Amino acid sequence: MLDPDHPFFAAAWRRWAVVGVCTLWALMEASRGAWIWAAGAGAAGAYAAWALLLSPKARRSPPR
After folding, report:
1. 24-39 CB burial, b ≥16 within 10 A, e <16
2. Phi then psi for 61, rounded to 5 degrees?
3. Which positions, given as ranges, span the membrane (predicted)?
């Protein structure tokens, strides 16, 4: 679903921003006691971190 080769993710800061926004959203939801939404946002952040930062495909396409 998230393609690290897409031109939008060419800049490294955008990759980190997507992961950061999802993580912060999960923390905000958890602080308000909305555990289901926190889990969903946390899962989205974990998937974004894998797809955009950690996966072998992401490592082959270095950010510009």
Report:
1. ebbeebeeeeeeeebe
2. -105, 85
3. 34-54
